[in-house]
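User: Please predict the structure of the protein below. I'd like the answer in structure-token form so I can feed it into my own downstream comparison script.

Assistant: Understood. Taking the following sequence of 152 residues as input:
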Amino acid sequence: MNKELIEYMFTVSRNIAKRNAEGITNNESLQEMQGGTSVNWIVGHILQARNTLLTQLGCEVVIPDNELMFYRPAHDEPIRQGTPIPLETLLEKLDNSHPRFLELVTQAVTLADSTTTEQQQKLISFFHFHESYHVGQLGVMRRVLGKEGKIA
């Protein structure tokens, strides 16, 4: 897995997440769907998961963890502490943190020895799959909210 591939994968998922969130108001983003998730939670959770990946790669986080407490996975206890961040702010954080996120992830793989690199590649692959799963959920949720699909 090279730098260009990592950058491509996470840039595509970020771009699709942003497209899927277009036209969704903050109030709409807070509506919980069956299962208890919302557009707002998913976008925030993508940011929180990116922080988790960076931590597991031994890197600094790009957004302070305390800002993303509300977006931790449901299996973490206690869950959803704090107040949700407005959707527009979450999307700005996704954009603003993206270059540094890519820099840290690709740097971690580039600097690693061959044994660690394989483990890190698996970790990056899993986290990208996880992010893609949630980006797909955003596409479904926008339809549930009565919005037209954004991905043809």
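That's the full token string. The chain has five helices and no strands.
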